[in-house]
Amino acid sequence: MFAMFIDEKACRGCQLCLDVCPTKCFVFNEETKKSVVARLGNCIACMSCDYLCPSGAISHQDHHVVKNFYRNIHFSQRMEKFL
Ligand code: SF4
Ligand code: SF4
Question: Which residue ranges form the domains of the chain, and what is each CATH number?
Answer without folding.
Answer: 3-82 (3.30.70.20)
